Amino acid sequence: MSLFLDSANLDEIRSAMELGIYSGVTTNPALLSGIAPSEQLEHLGEIARVCRRSLYVQVQHRSPEEMERQALTLVEIAPGRTIIKVPMSPEGLKAAQLLTLKGVPVCLTAVFSPLQVYAAALAGAHSAAIYVGRIEKRGEEGLAVLRQSLAMLEAGNLPTRVLAASIPDASTLAAILSLGDLDATIPFKLHQELLDHPGTREALEQFAGGPPED
Length: 214
Ligand code: E4P
Hints:
By secondary structure, the chain is α/β, with parallel strands linked by helices. Helices cover 46% and strands 18% of the residues.
């Protein structure tokens, strides 16, 4: 069970990674949209240096061949610890197949149903990013999609990891983490909430008398 930070902001990544609780960073084109396209590769390299652990990077092309070509460049950002995100679509699945044949780990992203997770697993994907919050915005049950996906992968003895993504709040995160063996990625705002509790603050204020004198 691993936790990732969903961010492309270097300050956020630095302060979260220092705590030693994250297995890496997930990014997507929206998170990188503030960076000029010509500078994104360099920025991702900087993220890789700061995060030092796994880095999820998404391709932005449409055809399987272009996705494969871009992925082969992106994977060099941090060899051995970069996972390539490709969109859940026929083109994405074709790209996933081409990349997994070359030993590149692939995450199918923008996944909304257990059957899409199953397709990702059959394509040999390392993981499938299930967009829990967006599923719920559509009036469907994000947790049910996660639960059924986990059951399906287990029944088929398929090694693909479930990556719970688009997590809206701390209570949904807690519910997700009690579902079973899955990974989750959270935005910085949720990272801040993760560590905070009024009871802890109150207790720490009581202890704040200062260290004993020598
Ligand atoms: C996951 O890898 C995605 O980057 C992310 O969780 C999407 O979240 P959003 O729905 O808040 O954009």
